[in-house]
Predict the 3D structure of the following.
Amino acid sequence: MEPELVIKPNRFIFLIMAFIALAMSTVFAVFAVIPDLFSDDGAFSSEEQLSIIEIIIFGFFCMVGLFLCFVWMKMFIKDTAAIAIYKNGFEANTNGISTGFIAWTDIEMLEEVLVSSNSGSGTRKEAALAVYLKDPAIYTQRLPLFFQWATKLAGKSGRYSHTNKYGVTENTPPIFLPFAAFGTQYEEAKKLMYAGVKQKTG
C-alpha cells in the first residue's frame, strides 16, 4: 500500500535524543549504585544507604532511559517516517512509539488543540492535531506496558474527558500529532486527513 504523503523528520534529532536518554539513564544508574557520589564527603564516605524503594525508583528510570535510547537510535538508523498518510488511514511515529495503522473508519473526530509540554525553560503550549478514536483500545493495546499504564493514569485525571457521538464519555487521551512533526506540510496533511475521515464517516 503506497502512501499518498510521507513526512520524514530530521534524523539527527533522534540521535541527539538518544544521547540525552543515555545520559539520563547513566545519571540514574550512578545515583542508584553510588548515591553519595556528589556529597560533600565524597563517594563511599556516608553510612547512609538508599532504601529498596529508592533503588527501585532509580532503576526504573534508568531502564526507561535505556528503552528510549534504543527506540530513538533505531529510528535514527531506519530513517523512520514521522507521519505516513494512506488512502484508507494513517500511521504516525512522532515520539518513538508508532501508532500502527489507524483506519479512517476508526476515527471519531480530528481537532486542533493546544497541549502542555515540558522543556528546559518550563511548561509551554504546543499546537497539535488530536485524533480521537471510536475505540481507544485500538491504539492503547499496541503500546508498551509502561505507556499503557501512563495513558490510563492520564485518562483518570479527567483532563481528556469527552463525549463521543454515541453519548459515551471517554477519558482516554487522543493521539496527539504535534504541528512541528508535519514541518511545512501540515496544511497538505491536514487536508488529506480531514477528507479521509469525512469520506469514511460521512
Observations:
- Strands lie at 5-7, 83-85, 89-92, 102-103, 107-119, 122-133, 162-163, 169-170, 175-178.
